[in-house]
Design brief:
This protein has about 240 residues and is mainly beta. The chain has one domain (about 35-225): Sandwich (Jelly Rolls), CATH 2.60.120. The protein has helices at about 5-15, 205-225; strands at about 20, 25, 30, 40-45, 50, 60, 65, 70-75, 80-85, 90-95, 100-110, 115-125, 125-130, 140-145, 145-150, 160-165, 165-170, 180, 185-190, 195, 200-205, 235. The strands form 4 sheets. A 9-stranded antiparallel beta sheet has the order 7-4-9-10-13-16-17-20-21. Strands 6-5-8-11-12-14-15-18-19 form a 9-stranded mixed beta sheet, with no helix packed on it. The longest helix has 18 residues, at about 205-225.
Length: about 240
């Protein structure tokens, strides 16, 4: 017996929506995120890493997980997590015992171009950030005890270290300076400089520290320089 084509299409659509089953149990299926809304994708985790949607109940953070605005992420002792912010080509590595909140991930139109405003609240610990060239008008900000560290789009690549208590480093190979907006005004941290908000002055990086940091930055660059995989980034369900 032949069925009209529309019945076949309807049955196929129903089958795709229904979870696959094995021995009567639902089987997880990887799907593909196609939303134009900004998202953060978990690239890699090491050790105990957790996330929460409300800051109260935390569960295990897993690779390929999609994180939305408002989510909290934290790492335990000796742990770390890499997050990739799609559409702005930015990677953030949470160092051990760090907690952040994805406070704002906003997309708007300006002069016919989609621009992104991203704000991370660095609550405790330390992060490494690798930013590739963003669209002019976009911004990536990190809030900590010293104020807001701002990277503005359109200028090129930047690599930074920021701590919750107010230390800021602009790695020497950065093209874009880091702008710290605090209560006392604006401080520009140029490539190769380290600024301590506690002491209120620039400090030189020790050679051993610079070499160690360079290794981690190169790892992050390998992620941030990949093509934007907006239409093919898998999310775990």
């Amino acid at each position: 017996m032949k069925y009209p084509i529309y019945i076949f299409v309807a049955l196929l659509a129903l089958a795709l929506r229904s979870p696959a089953r094995l021995n009567g149990q639902a089987v997880g299926v990887k799907t593909y995120e196609t939303s134009t809304v900004p998202r953060a994708v978990v690239v890699k985790t090491f050790g105990k890493c957790e996330f929460s949607e409300d800051g109260q109940t935390f569960t295990t953070l897993k690779p390929y997980q999609i994180l939305k605005q408002g989510a909290f992420v934290r790492t335990g002792e000796g742990a770390r997590a890499d997050l990739f912010f799609r559409r702005i080509g930015t990677t953030v590595r949470l160092q051990p015992e760090t907690e952040i909140q994805l406070e704002t991930m906003n997309r708007s139109m300006k002069d016919g171009e989609a621009v992104m405003q991203t704000l991370i609240n660095l609550r405790t610990g330390r992060i490494f950030t690798a930013v590739r060239s963003m669209i002019a008008g976009s911004s990536f900000e990190i809030r900590n005890a010293a104020g807001r560290s701002v990277v503005e789009g359109g200028g090129g690549k930047g690599r930074y270290i920021i701590t919750a208590d107010g230390t800021h480093v602009a790695e020497k190979n950065s093209v874009v300076p880091l702008k710290l907006v605090g209560e006392t005004g604006v401080t520009i941290i140029t490539p190769g400089q380290k600024f301590s908000s506690r002491e209120g002055k620039m400090l030189p990086l020790e050679a051993s520290e610079a070499v160690k940091n360079l290794i981690e930055f190169d790892e992050l660059d390998a992620i941030s320089e990949q093509p934007d995989t907006t239409e093919s980034t898998p999310s775990a369900r």
